[in-house]
Amino acid sequence: MSIQIILDKCVGCTLCVKVCPFGAITMENKLAVIDLHKCTLCGACVPACKFKAILLEKAQEKTVKTDLSSYKGVWVFIEQKKGKIQSISFELLGKARELAAKLNTSVSAVFLGNQIEIETQELIFCGADTVYLVEAPQLANYQDEPYTSVLIKLINKYKPEIVLCGATSIGRSLISRVAVKINAGLTADCTGLDIDPEKKLLLQTRPAFGGNIMATIITPNHRPQMATVRHKVMPQPQPDKHRKGKVIKESFHNDELISRTTLLDIVEEVETLINLSEADIIVSGGRGMGGPEYFKILHDFAEVLGGAVGSSRAAVDSGWMPYSHQVGQTGRTVSPKIYFACGISGQIQHLVGMQSSKIIVAINKDPDAPIFKVATYGIVGDLFEIIPALTKKFKEALNR
Amino acid sequence: MNIIVCIKQVPETTEVRINPETNTLIREGVKSIINPFDMYAIEEAVRLKEKSNGKVTVITMGPPQAESALREAISMGVDEAILVSDRAFAGSDTWATSYTLSCAIRKIGAFDIIICGKQASDGDTAQVGPGISMHLDIPQVTYVKKIEEVKDKTVRVERMTEEGFDIVETPLPVLFTVVKEINEPRLPSLKGMMRAKQAKIVNWSAKDIEALPECIGLKGSPTNVVKIFTPTPRSGGQMLKGDTQEIVQKLVQELKSEIN
Predict the structure, then answer these.
(1) One domain for residues A199 and A322
(2) Distance between CA A43 and CA A50 in Å, rounded?
(3) Can you tell me the distance from the alpha carbon of A141 to that of A368, in angstroms, rounded to the nearest whole number?
(4) By residue range, what is the domain housing residue A234?
(5) Is residue A300 a part of any domain in this protein?
(6) What is the pLDDT of residues B187-211, one digit of tens each?
(7) Is A176–B251 a contact, with Cβ atoms under 8 angstroms apart?
(8) Touching check for A44 and chain B: CB below 8 Å?
(9) 8 A C-beta contact, residue A215 and residue A319
(10) Is B95–A180 a contact, with Cβ atoms under 8 angstroms apart?
(11) Do both A96 and A221 map to the same domain?
């Protein structure tokens, strides 16, 4: 694969320079020059050039070693904590059904844990045709090595064409190792998954550069095609209690479940018991809160709404809120139904962590705060007056 | 104790803006920095070294310009720096990148701990750290927020989870990815900056690290980018005006149906 500028056609318009996401094109003597060290051959410049002066030659199809057609079915890795299936797994089952319908194939759930069989019904109701169930005391809680080794063996045995997994701390740790070991393609944090109608490939669309650009990625010559997806990106399917499916139990020897690391303890922090990534409603406070003691009005408000409290980086750096509540580039990415930004100016680092929320309500004193540019509802005013009034009104309206 | 830190040079994303006319990324004048998460990795490595009298080697895969990131790491107290750079690496996805870095680490030789930032701020994949540990077949602990205790052959750490944290004990050698909570990176000292200026940066090519040609760059990357586009930017909605009661009334009306 190679890229080159056809110098006869280049007029020096700089259009390509502006679209290059990697800053790899510069102008020299009024002609475009591509720095191949920076270029990733992404092709963004090709359609941008109005003079057809950029030539990108795709590599010849590699000789395919694996028989791709022997890989069938869409798999979802089911994440459980203390035996409880995490909501992300149901969201993925819903998406998997859609993809499987387009491929005319089936959906399977891979479910690892200990004494979890009772939960398999729910997976079938939500879209699984088959549940591969692996139960062992060593699998009760997530540990990198036994989970990796079980998943690799199951994939090698059953050869799914697609494997989906939550972009959670467990999912990302696990699936990256699996993909490396089985030489599969893996795309992180997909916000869109679809099937190419002609080639039947998985089209994986994901944000990069903090959401400023989107990239669609394929895995043409390797199987399975693997992707992680964040919370709340895909809708949760309605369980259908009439759905039927089968459970296949797989067992493993103890020496296949060895972990070099030892999980000594699992500590739950009370203040983070409402998982920020899973919350439907988040009330976040920023520098405008003025101090840690004032976060109480946000906690009260969040309680009435059944939501969680988040925070901007400024409030965390000031020591007003623990880091586990930080929303944004160096904190968590959230996408709730409603996000209240209270006294948050809306720095890009914060916006990339919450701008996919369905509804954003911004309350800020400064009418020029950038947060208003993304807000569904903007309120210029004193949050210390507005939040308590909102709390009261919602309490009445919701009968709480 | 020998510690290896893997870092990446990224554009300073706070300055990434969209040109409203062309709807594209404005790259002019955007500085390159060390990936913010890697700063915590460097700091933690230097702290471990200061306690245990070891050596810290920093390594990056990237274009020749990435040398400046390595020099910055030296100014923070890192001992040696290696730039893994080759045209053949162009187009690497996370599979090929983690493979390439693992080859370079093998060439470095014996180590006790590899530390990576939890993810890079440009790609956000969080896949390279775990990928390296798998290529090297060593255990990993991701999202480490505290190194509790370092013994001769084991380390006990806290791993951040969605609900709190896990306490994990691991044998050495091991790979950690670290989160922001672990420390506060130091500013370079004057002495450090002087040293960084003069330090010799080791340069390794694909051949030097004995990487298999079919496993690096585009060829070694199972995934291919087929399209890059700018998302429709989220546009602002309506401003609610009036006195507090009016605003509150309106908002409750609009949002009530969204809350169960």
Answers:
(1) no
(2) 14
(3) 48
(4) 68-256
(5) yes
(6) 999 999 999 999 999 999 999 999 9
(7) no
(8) yes
(9) no
(10) yes
(11) yes
Residue A125: inside a domain: yes
- What's the total number of domains in chain A? 3
Q: Is residue A262 part of a domain?
A: no
Interface A:B, Cβ pairs < 8 A: 301
Tell me, what CATH number does A79's domain have?
Answer: 3.40.50.620
Q: Are residues A204 and A79 in the same domain?
A: yes
Place of tokens 């990056």: B60
Query: Tell me: the pLDDT tens digits for A181-226?
Result: 999 999 999 989 999 999 999 999 998 776 767 889 999 999 999 9
Contact (CB, 8 A) for A361 and A376: yes
Question: Which of B228, B234, B247, B250 is the best mutation test for A, with the most CBs of A within 10 A?
Answer: B228
Interface of A with B in 115-134 (CB under 8 A): none
Inter-chain CB proximity A212 and B230 less than 8 Å: yes
- Are A53 and A74 found together in one domain? no
| Residue A197 token pair | 């109608």
**What confidence score (pLDDT) does residue B27 get?**
54
CB contact under 8 A, A358 and B258: yes
Contacts of A23 in chain B (CB under 8 A): 11, 27, 30
Do A40 and A116 share a structural domain?
no
- Does residue A72 share a domain with residue A53? no
Contact in structure between A286 and A314 (CB atoms under 8 Å): yes
Question: How many whole angstroms from its chain centre is CA A329?
Answer: 13
N-term to C-term CA, chain A: 62
**Which candidate from A177, A181, A394 shows the least CB-CB separation from B252?**
A394
ipTM of the complex as predicted: 0.90
What average pLDDT does the structure give for chain A?
A: 91
Q: Among A256, A281, A306, which residue terminates a domain?
A: A256
pLDDT averaged over 10-residue windows placed end to end, chain A, 400 residues = 84 87 85 83 82 76 65 97 95 97 97 97 97 98 97 97 96 96 95 93 87 85 95 89 97 96 90 73 95 94 93 91 85 90 91 89 94 94 95 90
pLDDT at residue A244, rounded to an integer: 96
From the list A7, A61, A58, A62, the residue with the least C-alpha distance to A33 is: A7
Of the candidates A209, A277, A393, which has its C-beta nearest B16's C-beta?
A209
* Any B CB within 8 A of A377 CB: yes
Tell me the nearest-neighbour CA distance from A124 into chain B, angstroms: 26
- Ordered by where they begin, the domains of chain B are 2-226 (3.40.50.620)
B218 chain-A contacts, CB cut-off 8 A: 1, 41, 59
Residue A263 lies in a domain: no
Cβ-contact A91, A233 below 8 angstroms: yes
For residue B35, the chain A residues in CB contact (below 8 A) are none
